[in-house]
Design brief:
22% strand, 5 strands, alpha+beta
């Protein structure tokens, strides 16, 4: 379901690892091993809000978000799964899915900008990719 002209925002290209292409979305991994942090980005050009998607695409987006959420709950068994669409810094439509534990470095605060990122190793990335 990619549209001509779709490109990942430069910030997402810089900070994330591409894991998979689902029917509507790219599945990204934020390259910060302190938190299992995944992002869904619809492969559609010029989107900033969920309401910019067609009604059918909104349903697919929600379905893919639920699929990712269930996968993360199963693989990571977190204390909490944070799901958010902010877009203040990166206006391209995307939804964060962040696995949180009461023992993680930022708990209970938000993870954004709390600590410098610690990149994943190639082995860790390969293991995470195996789930997609």
């Amino acid at each position: 379901m990619s549209t001509p002209g779709f490109e990942l925002a430069p910030e997402l290209q810089r900070d994330c690892i591409e894991l998979a292409d689902w029917p509507l979305c790219k599945v990204l991994l934020m390259n910060d091993s302190q938190y299992p942090w995944f992002i869904l980005v619809p492969r559609q050009a010029n989107l900033t809000e969920i309401i910019d998607l067609s009604d059918e695409q909104q349903i697919v987006y929600l379905t893919e978000s639920a699929k990712l959420s269930k996968l993360l709950m199963s693989v990571f068994t977190p204390d909490k799964l944070n799901v958010a669409a902010l877009g203040n810094m990166v206006p391209q439509l995307h939804i964060h899915h962040i696995v949180r534990y009461k023992t993680d470095a930022a708990w209970p605060a938000p993870v954004w900008g709390k600590f410098p990122a610690i990149a994943y190793t190639d082995e860790q990335i390969a293991q995470l990719k195996s789930h997609f």
